[in-house]
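Preliminary data (for renewal application), SN-glycerol-3-phosphate complex.
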Amino acid sequence: MKFFVDTADIGEIRELADTGLLDGVTTNPSLIAKSGRDFFEVITEISQAVEGPVSAEVAATDFDTMLAEGRKLAGIADNIAVKVPLTRAGLKTCKALSGDGVKVNVTLCFSANQAILAAKAGASFISPFVGRLDDIAMDGMGLIEDICNVYANYPKFTTEVLVASIRSPKDILESARMGADVATIPPNVLWSLFEHPLTDKGLAAFLSDWKKTGQSIL
Ligand code: G3P
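Predicted structure:
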């Protein structure tokens, strides 16, 4: 399973990239606004900080402008994935950009039927939003299961299931159990995956016992 981080904070991204375990980055207009930075400047920096795909989202809603924006964003770096909303114009843009060899991440997916449309439009990634469904008492993880099962019936679909709007480590484990390709994870949740109190307790005991031996490895 690939791990992307869902942020436009370059400091967090660099720290996570340093672990060697970060496979990509997703941003959206809200995350860009939160960063308080210039869109092109921040996306350029992120695309240089990580090797994997970096999602940058269009801001228009009509096909012609979305296509022009998508082409401009794709020109920033080879690892840009243009993010478009799951609308009629968004999918038309997806089809045009993917036909040009540009990676496209189709976002704001809330149904398996929408995910089928995105795959047919040649999306590299489909982003179903788990947390926002759970927030309205619907079954976010059920949607991931549905999409994984449907895509498995059609081996010609190359679209990767990118689980978005993740709220907790549990969402990640359940997505992995279902065979989702990618999870895009808020930085704090990603860091929390490394932690376990028994790891800390066990390490403290090993270090204390090692000290008693009086030996050193180097
Ligand atoms: O970037 C898309 C998605 O991950 C947003 O998540 O937490 O705003 O629902 P959230």
